[in-house]
Design a protein that fits this description.
The chain is α+β, with helices and mostly antiparallel strands. The protein has 6 helices and 18 strands.
Length: 315
């Protein structure tokens, strides 16, 4: 896989220019934008403001509390994205393959893989059971990670996968967009143990002693001055492994609310499970399943610069 600079988008999103009118009194900038874009998510608007993507009368404004007055000219680089609709049923567009023993799904970002004791939010497993009947979710993805995930119907398939995962003969590939305060080398191996965070139960941490061994191979396949696009191959399966390893190298994943202090605008956690490769066994042929790269990774999104348009480089 050769490294290259993402080409500039041929058509940039149209800038949005607003003039404040008919205000009975000055209003906060965040309130003004919510009134103008009622379908936009609150977090998306806050990210635009804090990321210096909103100007008033030609001056960049980073304060949500800035007062907008009649006659003020408010400009954004593009219209904010609408907040995602709640998940209520299995979407057939998620289905990658259904071959009897396996159901392969492209999980959207924002959907829990399975129920947890901490929330009653809807999950992929529950939606899949309503659509396909009794199934087993054999591995997980973080809620905010999109991409390929496997469900099984039979004990034979479960035993096959259990053995393959134990022997580490299942290969996974992810792609991520990372912030680059510390630019990653063109390729490398991250071999750092991971343990529980000392203060927060929802986080893990890179540790020098204790913890469990964790290894990730990575390769840069595109970059700009501020961001890098990374192919990742985890050789262990620790909780939050890719997120912790990249943050440990001071190259956190764009949009990571847990492991990054940078509030650069992002529509989501920019981590996608691209591909899973299953080994051949007596009853099963070798197979590879892939999930299409989300549009957010290919087209300009709020706060990051350009289009990455040559999918073939990932193949």
């Amino acid at each position: 896989m050769s490294k290259h600079r993402p080409p500039r988008a041929s058509e940039k999103p149209a800038a949005v220019r607003l003039v404040a009118r008919d205000l009975h009194a000055p209003v906060r900038l965040d309130r003004f934008l919510r009134d103008q874009f009622p379908d936009a998510g609150r977090r998306s608007l806050q990210s635009l403001i804090s990321g210096g993507r909103v100007s008033i009368n030609g001056k960049l404004v980073r304060l949500s509390s800035w007062e907008v007055r009649n006659g003020d000219r408010v400009e954004l680089p593009s219209a904010p994205r609408a907040k995602p609709r709640p998940f209520t049923a299995f979407d057939e567009s998620w289905l990658i393959a259904d071959d009897g023993d396996f159901i392969v799904v492209n999980k959207p970002a924002g959907l829990l893989a399975e129920p947890t004791r901490y929330t009653n939010a809807v999950s992929l497993l529950k939606l899949a059971e309503a659509r396909f009947g009794k199934v087993t979710l054999f591995h997980r993805l973080d809620r905010d990670t999109s991409g390929v995930i496997l469900l099984t119907r039979s004990q034979t398939a479960n035993r096959y996968l259990d053995h393959a995962f134990q022997q580490r003969t299942v290969a996974k590939e992810y792609i991520a967009v990372v912030q680059a305060p510390n630019r990653l080398e063109a390729s490398g191996v991250i071999d750092v143990a991971i343990g529980h965070h000392p203060d927060r139960r929802d986080m893990m941490a890179a540790v020098e002693t204790g913890g469990k061994p964790a290894t990730t191979h990575y390769q840069i396949f595109a970059e700009t001055d501020a961001l890098q696009w990374v192919q990742l191959q985890p050789h262990t399966g620790r909780t939050h492994q890719l997120r912790v390893h990249l943050a440990h190298l001071d190259a956190p994943i764009l949009g990571d609310r847990l492991y990054s202090d940078d509030r650069r605008p992002a529509t989501r956690l920019m981590l996608h499970a691209l591909r899973i490769m299953l080994p051949a066994a007596e009853a099963f042929p070798e197979r590879t399943f892939s999930a299409p790269i989300p549009a957010d990774f290919l087209a300009p999104a709020e706060g990051w610069p350009s289009e990455f348009g040559e999918n073939s480089r990932l193949g």
